[in-house]
Amino acid sequence: MKSFPKQDSLELEVTNFGPIVRGKVDLRPLTVFIGPSNTGKSYLAILVYALHNYFNASVSPNRRHLPRGYKMSKKDVNSLTGWAQEAFADRKRKSDSENIALPAEITDLICSRFSTQNAVISNEIVRCFGIDEVEALIRKRSRNGSRIALRSVSPDGPAALSRLTIKKQATELEMTIPEDVPLQINTAESEYLADHLHFLTTEMASDSYEERKFFAREFVGYLTSLVLPQIAGPLRLPAFYLPADRTGVMHAHSMVVSTLIRNAALAGVRPDTRTPMLSGVLADFLEQLIQLATPRRKRKSHRNLGEAIEESILNGSVHIDKSEAADYPLFKYRPKGWDNDLNLMNASSMVSELAPVVLYLRYRVHRNNVLIVEEPESHLHPAMQVEFTRQLAALVRSGIRVIVTTHSEWLLEELANLVQLSKLPETKRKGIDGGNFALSPEQVGAWMFQPKNNPKGSVVKEVELNDSGLYESGFDDVSEVLYNKWAEISGRIEEN
User: Fold this and answer.
1) Distance between CA atoms of 333 and 340, rounded to whole angstroms?
2) What is the pTM assigned to this prediction?
């Protein structure tokens, strides 16, 4: 089996969040949420997406500057200045790879950076869910609000614990780092950051306190970008969300865009009307579809992953044309062996459902990204659900992290088979259908959302492989009920 690199892990624990009473999830390279409808699978998936957006934006070039609410005392500035000058004074920045451990007072400055951004993370959660107030996510009858705990563990660093509390009046983010295992940085890993750190430490030697304070704030921002893998784990990675009902969105996106443009042109002419609110996951999906009109350069390795889906499932190719009237994409499908294209709305719903996956892999998603897919089995024949499960495994093996919500028995059974395959040496997998897609048990996690009556809501628990090598999903209970019903009907027919 292809070896999978050592990766960050993340434990996510929620209490009284949406319909979820309590749940603890270990987000792995391939994470599967299963369970009845209305138990919170999408709630948790959207929360994960919002957290990715927040932490990933924290280290983007335009977000490294500290927020206005972040305050540094004179003691903090002097402490940071003294440590930085001592730590970086005689280092060979481009060749020395020795890690620098951050003292507790510097770690506290970094953690306090996040505590000043309660409004930022609250607004991102509100945006992603498409709600008016974050308190709408608090489970009914909960007096203490929603509580979210994040524990990230880096292979080469400490475990950082973040606590997010959603109350009726405010959202509070608190981050703590264990004192016994301090954060570490390695300036040799990035020449760009090393140059900036050298510049900042030089400028902090200024005689002017205001100048030292300015550059000290900048210094904390750059330190945060260096240690974020240890603080946020995989949440620092860019994430992409493919919502449910992709077929309808793919068919309607051009009409939605045209309507938005027409309404924008008539602004001030029409009377004010309330614009329906889109959830952030759907708005992001629509925006990214529009951006495909000017696609980025194809990535060779992941273009092949998209082509594998076209070859093994779609039996044709998906591509993009530009509209003549406006600069937005027209999605086309060409069946294998045809000379002409079909508009996507004239193709099968299976093609419309998987077209975004192919296009995202071709132009957007790459290694060390996260792809969240709701109900990947939608509009797929059971045989194609099995094949798509293998393609998801191929994404994981290529270094893409995947989260799916599903009701598919076929997906879970094939996933169990792929995990079982990893127990065989590669030489013994030859001739087994799907033998090239094996995943280790550490790479896969399945989590059941179980409804409860007391208290009213759902509980999230891990589903492990049983002695038969299958995930116990509860689907067999439905089959048993149907079989017993068939047996009863057949018995009465014979009696009659």
Assistant:
1) 9
2) 0.87
